[in-house]
Amino acid sequence: MASARIGVDIGGTFTDLVLLDDNGQVTFTKVSSTPAAPEEAVLTGIDRILGQAGLKTSDVAEVLHGTTVGSNTMLQKVGAKCGLITTRGFRDVLEIGRVRTPSMFDLTWDKPVPLAERRYRLEVNERVNAAGEVLVPTPVDEILSAGEFFRAEGVESVAICFLNSYKNAENEKVALEAFQKAFPEISVTASISVLPEMREYERTSTTVVNAYVLPALRTYLQRLESGLKRIGVNAPLLVSNSNGGLSSARIAQDTPVFFISSGRSAGVVGAGRLGDAQGSKEMVVFDMGGTTASASLIHDGQLARTNEYEFRAGISTPSRFIKAGGYMMRVPTIDVAEVGSGAGSIAWIDGGGLLSVGPVSAGAFPGPVCYGIGGERPTVTDANAVLGFLPPSLAGGTMELKLDAARNAIDTLLAKPLGIGVEEAAVGIREVVNVNMARTIKAVTVERGVDPRDFTLVAFGGSGPVHACDLARALDMKQVIFPAAPGVFTAMGMLAGAVERYFVRPSLNLLDSLDIEALATTVEQMRDDARKALAEEGYSADRIEFVFDLDMRFRGQDYEIPVRVPDVIDGATRESLREGFIAAYTAMYGYASKDAIECANLRLLARGVASKTLDFRDIRSAQAAKGEQKRGTRRVYFNRESGWVDTPVMSRSLLDNEIAGPVILESTDTTIVVPPGWRVSADRVGCVIATLA
Which of 58, 187, 437, 509 gives 20 to 30 Å between its CA and that of 388? Predict the structure, then answer.
């Protein structure tokens, strides 16, 4: 019977794959990403990893995939030509937004250009009031007229969002059905299928984002599914969503807005499972890849989650303090801060003569100069190679580094114009990118009133282990954890995920007058909906977990905090909810009001429990035993004060006792740099632990 599960994470430079068989043995590989056709790297990697594991395509039970297609579509502004049909008078909701700016005193800030141009935002004369009563039914002729206009203008995808449709979806359903029947060639998204809750701006923005990325993600996943069948893999394709869970490819194709942060959240889920295995409950999760770096917080063993996310340039974070700078999506997501600083980020000199790094990345092609595949501008990887941090070859020996070319690029484009030496310029690149990445960690700690010194840094990604100790020292963090196979850890995290579905029921009531019996009835109705939905994914009722949250706020406020609903709903539920809300509010803001409390939305996270998921306490890597066992030395330039230092270099698998830095630990997936002043050892679950002496 099919038994192998494969996790796949597409990065800007490499595509990572991890295979878990039914014996708990892990196999991993890295292949160069293929940006023009991302699925080709996935198919190449699956063929390679099956060969390494000695398995056939018929042995694959599931393919778990994290994709950057959605986020790249948003970042590069290459989504569908998008239209919007809305209630008369609400055409400009996207521009009005929340009537805020992300920075009060930034006079140079430009509001993001709406994803649907104003001329493609059309109004129709329908109306549902706040109580859900249909005052004016949907004028089907106006819907068809709008469709004819869109067809003539070459609009590829349309969003439909009517006022108060979350209360009564009748008008929106009529519009959706009429449009789909008359214009099957145009993709269409209705807000009731994406976000059936109050707030017109958030609902409109979320629906438009879904429409904008839908054709790109749908086309990509269809190509990937066809490619998998072509190579003989008939297993289900599951896609990692922004909340760190998994969903079928069919759901991802219909509601891509839930998958904009696909992939990066999986690493945080994996770190949470690793923390459970280790007994670590306070962690800052840091992931540095080829294009971006991201950070998230795990506090008291709980992953930081939010129901709202904003895609924006610069540091992209769901943080409640930084809003109005991007495209709002009100969807469940892991609270991850991200910045465009990765190993492929290009170093350059700005107009003021200062060294800058990113956000432009060399990506997989042309790549860093040292890769020798066409890159001409120096990157962070080139700096690390010139300074001796990286081995002579990467990706298991499949890519020889061109150190002379990297050195010449840094000298010509940076060092000579700045009047400094090559080593000093390379160190400067590392320092600048480290400062940029430290901002992401501060965004999820200091900006939330959390002291990073109380946490352990968990570092992974292809380049995270090369920079982690320097980052930790800069933030005065004393310990860094490098997981087993950190270079492919995000793909590994997908193997620790579970299939999830989300449900929401809007309701606005004062807590003191909340009908507890009605709440219990709604909870059971939502359980039934979840059971039916997950039954389609192959999960029986006994393999489903339910997590209910109630969005709560003080009366008059505009933002809610999710509070866990007790498993048993009875006479004590009201006080339990009150205590939970006060505790959560106080933890977030430092105080709590005496005002009345309102309940807004009831949310359900239904999780399908897989028959086998990754357990970090019971994994074994064949590659750790089979890999080349080597010891040696290499000259490394750690900083300006130390200069070149003869540094011990050893295979990671040889680390058995605690040793003092400097030392460099190498494996086929990444390189761990332990600078002077640190001590390093291995723990019982295969992690490398670096401690500041």
Answer: 437
